[in-house]
Specification:
Number of strands: 0
Helix content: 40-55%
Shape: elongated
Largest sheet: none
Distance between the termini: 78 Å
Oligomer: single chain
Amino acid sequence: MGLTEILAKLRKRPLLFAAGAVALAALILLGSIIPRGNKKTELQPSGLNAAHAIPPKALFIPDEPDFVPPFLVEREVRGSWSLDEIRPYWRAQTDNEFLRRIVRSAVDDLMTGVR
């Protein structure tokens, strides 16, 4: 099959010929637009200099220390508590209505966030 026979078949099908021509033109265009890998181009920021650059230490979180800092106790741990010291934190469980009000208000607060 020679070149003249192929051209004769393509003349019978002009749509196929046009599609091939468009594909060839697109390949040539893309080949001229896409830069080659052998050129070394460095991107230079326009209008910026090193004085305005952000240092890398300001962009990244520093590493965690390799040691655990010592725990500072502000006061000594008590061995026993007096009744006056306990009273603000202790609620007698005999008053069931008081506990119901506390639980109901806590549940209502939680449910308002769900709505």
